């Protein structure tokens, strides 16, 4: 029994050791963010609210039931409409001979038959607004995707910069140790100035290392926030280093094709089209407000007072004793000419304004694509140039450091080589980050939304 328990314990330890979460890839980070971002959930709820407005507009086609029921008090009366023992009409309507309860129910059941387009136009306007809200949802998803990529690539860049600077710092510290030994033994042509030069360089390196660590920590916290990972869970990234993205839209399509793709795929284009449909429908709906509504239905009333006698005369109206219902066919018309004209003018002005905005978007979107495309292409060439410069600077650093170790180099030259390498390598890593973000931006402005 003890052996079996021990085996289970060992199995549990092995399981816990192998059950750690896998490193996070960029695609997984984006997917997690799209599932966990409360801002996306907010847009989804707004889409649901817009759908409810459509249902509300279409609901006016159904039955409309209105009722008024109350329990009240009235004066009590005995007898009928004549004075007792005569044919004279009674004149004691306002005399109080006691109190009686009074119950009444009035009701209407109405079904619209024809509204001159009011319901249909308001429903189409609501549908257009719902489509605009769906566009807002896509825009929010795209922004979240961009934020994840910014945090992901920013984390890799800061980590690579930090690791590179720490490597350079080790070389600087090693050079300092050598200078101190040489100064103590007098074996080489080292001077106190060489030591001061290296110590000053070390201070600058330490500053940049601390800055890189701060950016790295902030990017990691941003990824935790966006992907919904617990703040206490360590962040493991699948990519060992930042590298230029390999597949982009600009590799397969030219600028003109990308501009056309943007006009077809951008949420803003669909939003403008939906907004125009909504505004046109709203103008038509406001115009139809000048016409009546034709309806059919049933109206009825039930009234009773226990301390008053029912007159039972078909030619007399007794509000305290009545009941009945009848089918009706009617026309209902609420019209104020000046108000209706102003509402139509307002809706038409908003439609005209949106048409002007749509016209500008047809020009602005291609320009935005061109700007993103040109920036992406320029950064691609920049990455290539800085990569060559970084490799050359590293070879210079290694050669200078080797000469210094052999005692034939100067501390100033070594420090200058180390500094040049650090600056070139940091510029290269930042350029790669900018290039990757430019590719993400190009995807976004051409309508490649999740």
TrEMBL record:
InterPro entries named in the record: OMP_efflux, TolC-like
Subcellular location: Cell outer membrane
Signal peptide (UniProt feature, chain positions): 1-21
Keyword Transport recorded: yes
Matches recorded under Pfam families: OEP (PF02321)
Keywords: Cell outer membrane, Membrane, Signal, Transmembrane, Transmembrane beta strand, Transport
Family stated for the protein in its record: Belongs to the outer membrane factor (OMF) (TC 1.B.17) family.
Protein name, UniProt field: TolC family protein
Species: Thermithiobacillus plumbiphilus
